[in-house]
Amino acid sequence: MPEPTAAPLVLALGLATAALGVAFGIAFMVVGGLLLTVGLGMWFAHLLPGKGHFHEPLVAPEFRPAAISASLGTVAELHPGVPGYRFRLPEEVHPISAGVKGGIVGGLLMPIPALAYGILSGHGIWYPINLLAGMVLPGMDQLTIEQLEAFRLDLFIASSLIHIVICLIVGLIYGVLMPTLPSLPRSVAWGGLLMPILWTGTMYLTIGLFNPLLSLGVDWPSFIVSQFLFGIVVAVVVQLDQRRHSMIAGLLGGLVGGLLMPLPAIVWAWSTGRTIWYPPNLLAAMIYPEMRSLSSQELQMFRTDWLVAAIAIHLAMTLSFGLVYGALLPRVTRIPGPLAWGGLVLPLVWTGMSYGLMGIVNPLMQQRVDWPWFVVSQFIFGIVAAIVVLRSEMVHIAPAGSGPAVDQEAATKWLTK
């Protein structure tokens, strides 16, 4: 029997990540190239002689089906005009209006996290609204924080139009694409998508609690890429290593993922002109309160105690999450394919597009957006829109073409058999 493999998914993810590097920078290109190489290696290894398949034992002879003896005239032949002669698959689909409804409902709930961020951060509700207008309006980077916190009718109209158009377009995409997308493997849907989101949220809250100033120095897009790289690697290791206990496989996956996870952060530091010690020093600042008063230049220095602390934190967290992955992935239920795509994958694509577009139009505005809160908004939209589409009515697809006239006698005879 063919052996399942995650190689095509890893290869596709690497290709997409490398393509995003055109807008996001060299860090995405390097990570995409690494994933592309890993995916190709996995796929080539799957095609080697003696690989890529497993032996399925036959059941006992008494449980095997009996031989089928042919007999003529027992199966009715389909003739033109008989129901079922010509039809299209799938026979039922969600209507396009379901995507529009999903976009409207998701668009109504999506601004809640952004408005909550504006209130909790002290900027006010108009700050996130005005930042949204910066996706397409040039010159927004010339505005001060005080001006962005104030109400402006032109910015409100621009952001409202952007929000409505994007919600309707993405909702239409959901309605058309989601019913046709295949189901994601359980380990990839949970370990490679959902759990990295939870880890990112945990780290965001932890850094904000222990050292709020350092959260401003973290490049959250590259941080999120690191989490997804870790999650996918651990999920693949746990899925492929069936010979060991799931907890041992989780530890091994955590170790391998932990080795690859720092690459996006290091590439980001190098591409932005910082030293490679800047990311580990930010991690060490979680347990060194006195580091919150250091400047960006001081955080780029090498210090042995900071490096040891960062390595200890990194190992403790990757091995702990590896154990959690190993314990939970074999036991969690499968996420429905449309919900996994609509609630997890497509919001990431939307976030990447918004990040890249704002980086081209208004790079300074890109830095002012609180991207973790932005990601939360996208996932709320994705989950709500996916649920609305899934719960919408189904439309029957009529047979292809008009076909010949219906033979009522043949149809009645066929139905009564």
Automatic annotation (TrEMBL):
Q: Which residues form a coiled coil?
A: none
Transmembrane segment boundaries:
12-45, 114-136, 156-177, 189-214, 220-240, 247-270, 306-328, 340-365, 371-390
Q: Which keywords belong to this entry?
A: Membrane, Transmembrane, Transmembrane helix
- What highest taxon heads this organism's lineage? Bacteria
Q: What is this protein called?
A: Uncharacterized protein
Q: Which organism is it from?
A: Anatilimnocola aggregata
